[in-house]
Amino acid sequence: MAVRLYLVRHAESTWNAEGRVQGQADPPLSERGLTQAAQLAYRFRGDTITALYASTLQRARQTAERIAKAADLPVRFDDRLKEHNLGLFTGLIWTEIVAQYPEFAKSWMEQALDMPGGEKHVAFRRRAAGVMQDIVAQHSEGKIVVVSHGGILGEYLAYLLGLDPDRRHPFRFDNASVSIVEVGGVMSRLHRLNDVSHLMVAVPPSEDHSHEDDDENDREDV
């Protein structure tokens, strides 16, 4: 039997909008991100989803909660689905990284490196593969939605495809994108990569819950 994983990158955060490196910082969704989360939820409406997992960081949590409402499922939060801790780069924009760490920035474009003051890359890679393997092990079949971050999803996909762990990945995950992989069968299969077609679909007003519970979420993260 096989499990089909829907790998969802969280919708746009306020730091995404500013071009800031987030790592394990915890900014909320931007106004555009709230709309994207509603579009994601609309994309999953009516789907028979077996389980929904998400990172504990606010941008992933807010995205997953919209999907949960549309799919009528609880969210299973897992701290291991958090993004790579990027250490001293956290909060910086790319031009600041280039100015402060020029040689590192040049190498970073091609190689998977340890971030200054952050999580070691080998530990991050092990965490990404481990949490996804644990999720798959909980289910013999079905559709599993995992809302996480570009780094985690990239490391897991590179692991499945057997890519060189020391090279930068030849793919990316846009905000609110959906990628689909099938695992547990004879071989793992990539069915879809970085699909954002649902972001072209307008959500009917009756289905748009993008601003519900905003005050509650703000209080939780004070």
Q: How would you describe what is shown here?
A:
With 222 residues, the protein is of the alpha/beta class. It has one domain: Phosphoglycerate mutase-like (Rossmann fold). The protein is 37% helix and 15% strand. It is built from eight helices and six strands; from the N terminus they run E-H-H-E-H-E-H-H-H-E-H-E-E-H. The protein has a six-stranded mixed sheet with strand order 3-2-4-1-5-6. The longest helix has 17 residues. The termini are far apart.
Summed up, the helix count is 8
Number of strand elements: 6
Q: Give the second-level CATH assignment, the architecture.
A: 3-Layer(aba) Sandwich
Helix-strand sequence: EHHEHEHHHEHEEH
End-to-end Cα distance, whole Å, is 44 Å
Structural class: alpha/beta
Radius of gyration from the CA trace?
17 Å
Q: Spans with pLDDT under 50 lasting ≥5 residues?
A: 215-222
Number of domains: 1
Gross geometry? globular
Fourth CATH level, the homologous superfamily: Phosphoglycerate mutase-like
Biggest sheet strand line-up: 3-2-4-1-5-6
State the CATH class.
Alpha Beta
The overall pLDDT, averaged over residues, is: 91
Helix share, percent: 25-40%
- And the CATH topology? Rossmann fold
